[in-house]
Write a structure and sequence with these properties.
The complex is a heterodimer of chains A (381) and B (503). Helix content of chain A is 27%, strand content 25%. Chain A has helices at 39-47, 81-94, 134-146, 170-176, 223-232, 243-256, 261-268, 273-277, 281-294, 340-346; strands at residues 24-30, 36-37, 57-62, 72-78, 96-102, 116-123, 152-156, 161-166, 183-184, 186-191, 207-209, 212-218, 303-309, 312-317, 326-330, 333-337, 352-354, 362-365. In chain A, the strands form four sheets. Chain A has a seven-stranded antiparallel beta sheet, covered by helices on one side. Chain A is globular and about 60 Å long. Chain B has 503 residues and is of the alpha/beta class. Chain B has helices at 23-27, 54-58, 81-93, 158-161, 183-196, 231-236, 263-269, 289-302, 319-328, 348-353, 358-371, 389-397, 407-413, 435-438, 443-467, 490-496, and strands spanning 9-13, 33-36, 41-44, 64-68, 98-99, 114-116, 137-139, 165-167, 171-173, 200-201, 218-222, 239-243, 254-256, 277-279, 309-314, 333-337, 346-347, 379-383, 402-405, 483-485, 499-500. Chain B has an eight-stranded parallel beta sheet with strand order 9-19-18-16-15-12-11-10. In chain B, strands 6-20-21 form a three-stranded mixed beta sheet, covered by helices on one side. The longest helix of chain B is centred in the last third of the chain and has 25 residues, at 443-467. Chain B is globular and about 90 Å long. The chains are: A alpha+beta (381), B alpha/beta (503). At the A-B interface, α5 and α9 of A face loops of B.
Chain lengths: 381, 503
């Protein structure tokens, strides 16, 4: 295993320790909704340290707070005590805080500049909504915090789930946040090789909005087009990275437009025109319409992603598959990973392993879940 | 009156090699050359030369040389040669100075100050020879969402809801009317539009019946003169364009002199033979966005909502606000023509001083429509000064859906931009209605040349897209992160919505 690199500042401005590598992504889900410890996920990620360089890692865990599954949980990252004071006051003014606490961290395991991490279990007062949907209300407050320039960033905002991320190797971040003490039925994770954006705590993956989270390997060449499309819809990009685009696009397509996962896959990574032209009329009409209307959300450039929501885990690559993605199953446990070795390292005896084609989504769903906001449309089993 | 205007060009013939074949006498429509029977030689009147280079191209012995004249006025930083010449001309003629083609001043070519991005290691470039590369795009108003059933079927047919133009390359041939160019040119462009999967705009001169077979690839214009506009005309093409303005002459109408209104032009324009065809600057039924809205509605009604309606404006100072109004008036496509746009004839002072560059116009319009959340309701076509495939790529990255080209297509046919279109003597048989000169342009050969140009540009666009790690043109649209500016002020960069090189 490579020795962690000494990162002097938040942004590693001179790239002086840059190691040519890649990102690693991994996800596992118990399709019966049974809770799993984070140990396997961390082990799988550690197995892929060759793809990482210690400048960013993170985990999304679903089924995390079963005792408080009816409350939204805001994981908030603060630059300093002043920001904490401001953020706590703001959240208190906008929500009904049921409980809040500092997220337990072992700072000796991580880089020196780790921010303050706080979590708030909150209810939304229906009288405050003024005709806005509850989720839209939460989203607007998340944007308010993230764009405030007060040194506060909402890392996750869903129910019964949470994101833990920062600058460090996957195992360092796991140790920092005591992930061995957490359990969930769905875990996704990411190890980062920083490309064009600075490695900072808020910029680490997963990215999350409400209960949707995403981890991403690759780089989006269409970022300018995608961002412009989302900004037209009122979204604001605040995290300086192309992966944020995915989380906002998912919020728009999956939550607001309620589009099925397969349709979303066809928007992010659509078939080529020559293939669309050869399809039966109804299918051709659908796919042509999607490209015409949502062409601004076509994700161009190399990517493999895993996005998750309560009861759902989806793997997808770009349409010419410039990044790897492997899926596997063992009984009720579904795996998606950058590398097969990472899956084999935690489950050597697999029932099924396959390599999905470019643009072909791998969809794992789970019905035995408790906290869910909107039903997720999945067209295939 | 003795002319004080000095010649622009020095024409010489190498008498050693010249065979006195008289080819130059035949080729030069400006009568620079004449055969001197007594001396058995070619005489030269260089005052008439426009540097079209037709004679040079067709001289079998390569005996002719044309160079800028060495005769100069006394050097003066304030009074340039052009200033002095223009005054001399006006002192003789007492009229507006006319010119053809687009602005030739060195100012405002922002395209040359924009540099494209290229992928390197982490985001690999894509090789268009080995990987698919898609240039198709659809022009027209798009709904904000696709209605999808629970079983995943589209419940709306967008093409029926809002008609679209399908272009296989993001390039269309801009308006060139019958009269400004001859039918051979129009047929060349219509034919190339079919073979290249795009559209040709026939301009304001009506539709010659010989072009009917290309109807599916024609855009038909409704200009202020309403020449040739009738129900059958509107039904004939794939789209209708309302022309409000033109980049080469914003705020200026058109004028086809009566001597050019031949029997055929009279028939297609629906005006008497020999009368001047005047298209005024304003449409006399459009004095507001509401009026424009009515005309758009009338055209849509007349064409059974089956064709997109384009509104073409010249790029001017407040293009963004105007475009916003045009979207709300119901246009499906807005064509914006920059100040380097070409024309058959324009007052020189207008061409060189009115309007703004297309780069600034397209960037500000795209930003404004995006901020207002209505960018999806309209497609943008950028025209006026598109000289190369890289200009196309940069215009799309600044926010255009596609580009109009005209001069580039004419150059592919043979035009050498001598800027004498308004004389009607185009030696290359393009901007002329003279039947003998028009025959110089063979539509079979010209169509092949323009098709080659489009193919060449397509390949280059694919290479540039691949270099940026993009394999579909829709991911370039408004992708200003792929651009950087060099030698521009902060304010210019801000309006273009791009960053400085090195950042």
């Amino acid at each position: 295993m490579r020795t962690p690199i000494g990162v002097k500042g938040r942004n590693n401005p001179y790239d002086d320790d840059k190691v040519i590598d890649a990102c690693s992504i991994f996800g596992m889900m118990d399709q019966q909704g049974r809770s799993m410890a984070g140990r396997d996920v961390v082990e799988a990620m550690t197995n892929m340290n060759e793809r990482t360089n210690g400048l960013g890692s993170g985990y999304a865990v679903y089924g995390l707070y079963p005792k408080r599954r009816d409350q939204y949980v805001l994981h908030v990252m603060y630059d300093d005590r002043k920001a904490l004071e401001w953020g706590s006051k703001f959240i208190d003014s906008e929500f009904k805080i049921v409980q809040d606490e500092e997220i337990p961290m072992d700072r000796s395991c991580c880089k020196a500049d780790a921010p303050i991490m706080w979590r708030y279990f909150v209810d939304v007062d229906s009288e405050r909504l003024n005709g806005t949907g509850e989720e839209d209300y939460v989203v607007q407050r998340v944007f308010s915090i993230n764009t405030s320039e007060k040194g506060a960033y909402v890392v996750s905002s869903g129910k019964d789930m949470g994101v833990f991320k920062g600058v460090g190797w996957p195992q360092e971040i796991a140790d920092t946040f005591h992930l061995d003490e957490y359990r969930g039925y769905l875990w996704t994770s990411h190890g980062r090789f920083p490309t064009n954006t600075p490695g900072w705590w808020g910029g680490a993956h997963p990215f999350s909005l409400l209960d949707t989270s995403i981890v991403h390997n690759g780089e989006i060449s269409s970022y300018g087009t995608n961002r412009r499309f989302l900004e037209m819809l009122g979204y604001q990009c605040t995290f300086q990275t192309d992966t944020e685009i995915f989380s906002l696009a998912l919020d728009y397509l999956m939550r607001r437009r309620k589009l099925p996962v397969e349709i979303i896959a066809n928007i992010f990574a659509p078939p080529l025109w020559k293939d669309i032209d050869a399809m039966p009329p109804q299918q051709r009409n659908l796919l042509r319409s999607l490209r015409m209307v949502y062409g601004g959300l076509l994700m161009n450039g190399p990517f493999s992603i895993i996005f998750a929501k309560h009861g759902l885990m989806v793997g997808l690559t770009d349409r010419i598959k410039l990044r790897p993605l492997i899926a596997a199953k063992k009984k009720d446990v579904f795996f998606i990973s950058s590398e097969e070795s990472a899956i084999r390292c935690v489950q050597p005896d697999l029932d099924k392993v396959w390599h999905p084609r470019g643009g072909e989504p791998v969809v794992a769903s789970c019905v035995n879940i408790h906290a869910s906001t909107n039903p997720v449309l999945v067209m295939s089993s | 009156m003795k002319s004080y205007v000095l010649p622009d060009f020095n024409v010489t013939i190498d008498r050693e090699t010249c065979t006195v074949c008289r080819g130059c006498v035949i080729q030069c429509t400006f009568n620079v050359y004449s055969f001197n029977k007594e001396k058995n030689r070619i005489d030269i009147d260089m005052n008439k030369c426009v540097d079209c280079q037709r004679c040079i191209t067709f001289c079998p012995e390569d005996s002719i040389t044309v160079t800028p004249t060495p005769i100069q006025y006394r050097q003066n930083a304030s009074w340039s040669r052009e200033n002095i010449r223009n005054i001399a001309k006006q002192a003789e003629a007492g009229g507006i100075l006319l010119t053809g083609m687009g602005c030739d001043k060195p100012n405002f070519t922002y395209f040359d100050r924009l540099l494209l991005n290229a992928s390197q290691v982490t985001n690999p470039s894509i090789d268009p020879i080995r990987e698919p590369m898609e240039l198709r795009t659809y022009l027209g108003s798009k709904p904000s969402l696709v209605n999808i059933s629970s079983t995943g079927e589209s419940l709306t047919d967008i093409s029926l809801e809002s008609p679209q133009l399908q272009v296989e390359i993001p390039i269309l041939f801009s308006a060139m009317s019958f009269g400004s160019v001859n039918l051979n040119v129009q047929e060349t462009l219509a034919r190339t539009a079919v073979t290249s999967g795009t559209y040709f705009n026939v301009g304001e001169g009506g539709l010659n019946p010989k072009l009917n077979k290309y109807a599916d690839h024609l855009v038909l214009q409704v200009a202020s003169g309403r020449f040739g506009v009738h129900k059958g005309y509107l039904d004939a093409g794939a789209a209708v364009e309302i022309k409000i303005g033109q980049g080469a002459k914003p705020g200026i109408g058109g004028h086809l002199p009566g001597e050019k209104v031949t029997e055929e032009i009279s028939a297609t324009r629906m005006i008497p033979q020999g009368t001047d065809a005047l298209s005024p600057a304003p449409h006399h039924d459009i004095y507001s966005i509401e009026d424009l809205s009515q005309l758009i509605s009338a055209i849509k009604e007349a064409t059974d909502y089956s064709k997109p309606v384009i509104v073409k404006i010249a790029a001017v100072h407040n293009s963004a606000a105007i475009a916003s109004g045009i979207v709300r008036a119901g246009a499906d496509i807005i064509a914006i023509d920059g100040m380097r746009g070409a024309t058959g004839a324009a007052p020189q002072v207008i061409r060189d001083n009115v309007g703004i560059p297309i780069e600034m116009a397209i960037a500000s319009v795209d930003s404004r429509l995006n901020q207002e959340g209505i960018r999806n309701k309209v497609s943008l076509i950028a025209g006026g000064g598109i000289r190369s495939s890289s200009d196309v790529v940069k215009a799309i990255a600044l926010g255009a859906d596609a580009c109009y080209i005209a001069t580039a297509a004419l150059i592919a046919m043979g035009c050498t931009v001598c800027q004498k279109c308004y004389t009607g003597k185009c030696p290359w048989g393009i901007a002329t209605m003279d039947p003998m000169i028009s025959r110089r342009l063979n539509p079979d050969i010209a169509a092949k040349r323009v098709e080659n140009l489009i193919r060449g540009w397509s390949l280059e666009i694919k290479e540039m897209l691949g270099g940026m790690g993009i394999n579909s043109v829709e991911s370039l649209r408004g992708n200003r992160h792929q651009l950087r500016g060099v030698g521009l002020t902060e304010r210019e960069l801000e309006i273009l919505g791009i960053r400085m090189v090195g950042s």
